[in-house]
Amino acid sequence: MRAEFPGFRLGNVLATSFTATLTERHGDAVERIPTPHRLVDWLAVNGLAVDSCTTAQLELARELRESIHAAATAAALQDALPASAVQVINDRSAQGRAAAILTPEGKRRWRLSSASRVEDALGVIAADAISVISGERDGKLALCASPTCQAAFFDTSRSRTRKWCDMNTCGNRQKKARFNAKQRRNSGSAE
Ligand SMILES: [Zn+2]
């Protein structure tokens, strides 16, 4: 599944996986849901399949994403939550009509009220953001240590000392940067 959709960072927390569809926010930002079709792809791999998405629905999704980003960042910094972001998250949550379904295998699935209801999918994401930002879930919101990223992520490690939003991207890059700096220092002192 992962290989079919390169460019999406799939985490175990829906809300912060969603905010990660805009990466390198403090560097050369990369928009990973530039078109309605890409949002449809993202929703499918996150268990919220819809059969279509309009430009207006994509706009709603992006507005929700940036609101979650703003509120989660404030929560990570223990700042007051921005009122406009809280309003958008609450609106999207209230307007979603997805139902949680228990499968015979004991898994949870989301059933949308109709296959074109992107709003239902956004409601699920908004509710997930509420559970994370409110502290209902076991974990801690933190900001990625990469200066060009600074994404809010949800740290569920036992020690709560995770530094990067994603080990495979930001974590690796930082490690490489440190390694290269060390190599430079070593070659410099040999001269
Ligand atoms: Zn990061």
UniProtKB/TrEMBL annotation:
Domain (Zinc finger CGNR): residue spans on this chain: 141-182
Domain of life: Bacteria
Pfam families: ABATE, zf-CGNR
Gene3D superfamilies to which the protein is assigned, alphabetical: Jann2411-like domain
SUPFAM superfamilies per UniProt: Jann2411-like
PANTHER family for this protein: BLL6575 PROTEIN
Name this protein carries in UniProt: Zn-ribbon-like motif containing protein
Species the sequence originates in: Saccharomonospora cyanea NA-134
